[in-house]
Amino acid sequence: MTALMEIRDAGRTFNAGGKSVTAVKSMSLVFPGDSPRLITLAGESGCGKSTLALMALGFLAPTSGQVLFEGQDIATMADRHRRQFRRSVQAVFQNPFEVFNPFYRVDHTFHLALRQLGMDRRSSEARQAVEGVLARVRLDPQRVLGRYAHQLSGGQLQRIQIARALLLKPRVLVADEPVSMIDASLRILVLRQLVEIKEQLGVSILYITHDLSTALQISDELLIALNGEIVERGDPLEVVTRPRHPYTGMLVRSVPSSDPNDRWTSEIPDTPR
């Protein structure tokens, strides 16, 4: 079966001031076409993980390798297929406060999505669709619609980002550090929602993070990135408890814990770790 999405030996080099900087040397991953999968790409700042996310979204073209969606190279897609790709692969970015235009109410982000769907934003169908995706992320429409971004918390804005993406009925969600800038208690809620989106809606997710704890708790596959390359991949529990690459071992040892007897767990906790 053709893979839903495949990143095949993708690399990205930037040229500036007569010099070349390689952000991604070569990275590969596959989302199968027959079942949803949550793949985590973890590593320190500067390892290339966010650059890979931008290539997966089609915002950056790889300078080597390919990004394939349903077997087609997104760099050479016909316009009709490219529009479908744009709807099918959606993003959740790290900083929710930078996503929303402060001059518009948050409703505006849904209006843009409704326009892509060809729906009249004033119709009852559109209203029900927006209320449905807000309910999916545990938000009361009456408490968030009609408000400006500065009137809402980071956790609310991040969940509105997710709701907007779900409105377009995506097949892949690229979540770049989606919980790093929200309160610890809300991180657990958002992580649970990502798992629900995969399991209940059948959406595959690329989760970008530097946090091995959350990676272990929600992932089907864990990839470790270093200097623009993937140096280790596999079952998340296997990777963190029996790391093969020295860098992975260093990441594992750097995770803080207040309990010296604490053990890694693949369950999302009821309270923050």
CATH topology type: Rossmann fold
Number of domains: 1
Q: Detail the poorly predicted runs.
A: none
The secondary structure category is: alpha/beta
CATH architecture: 3-Layer(aba) Sandwich
Number of helices: 11
Please give the alpha-carbon distance between the first and last residues: 39 Å
What's the overall geometry? globular
| Strand order in the largest sheet | 6-7-8-3-9-10
Mean pLDDT: 91
> According to CATH, what is the class?
Alpha Beta
Query: Gyration radius, to the nearest Å?
Result: 19 Å
- The proportion of strand residues reads 15-25%
Full CATH superfamily name: P-loop containing nucleotide triphosphate hydrolases
Q: How many beta-strand elements?
A: 10
Largest sheet: 6 strands, mixed
H/E element order:
EEEHEEHEHHHHHEHEHEEHH
Helix content: 25-40%
What does this protein structure show overall?
- By secondary structure, the chain is of the alpha/beta class.
- It has a single domain (5-253), classed as 3-Layer(aba) Sandwich (Rossmann fold).
- The protein contains 11 helices and 10 strands.
- The strands form 2 sheets. The protein has a 6-stranded mixed β-sheet with strand order 6-7-8-3-9-10, with helices on both faces. A 4-stranded antiparallel β-sheet has the order 2-1-4-5, with helices on one face.
- Helix 5 crosses helix 7 (154-167).
- The radius of gyration is 19 Å and the shape is globular.
- The mean pLDDT is 91.
